Amino acid sequence: MTCALQIHVEFSFRGETHYLQASVDLDDLLSKCDIQPPFYEIIAQQNKIDTYSYLYEVMEQAEIVFEKATGIATQFLKEGRFDFGGFAARWHENRILDLLRPIAQRELAVDLDSNAAFKRAMLEAYRLGKNS
Hints:
Elements: E1 4-13, E2 16-25, H1 26-32, H2 39-46, H3 54-59, E3 65-70, E4 77-78, E5 81-82, H4 84-108, H5 116-131
Antiparallel strand pairs: 1-2, 1-3, 4-5
């Protein structure tokens, strides 16, 4: 299932209240980079706001509210806040497991989802290989 969420900010600028929202495809974001996404820039882009404007600077002072998460992102959304670091770690782990599952099944006839100890061992071996 696709991981996505909605974000919005509400603030006043020059006597006018602004309610700006954006849709965020978390799968797309994490496939491109591992750092905290520029959520304010995403809102600005989807609402056609120049990031060099005073409106953008005021918007950056407003708190972003996160909502309507889908996929595993739902596990990291609580009361309008989103744990991006926790989500990113789980998302990457799931991607690694998607690569390891067929290998474990083909070479060892092991279902990683029903063997937690073997799953942890495969993840650890993957990380050791990646870091060496």
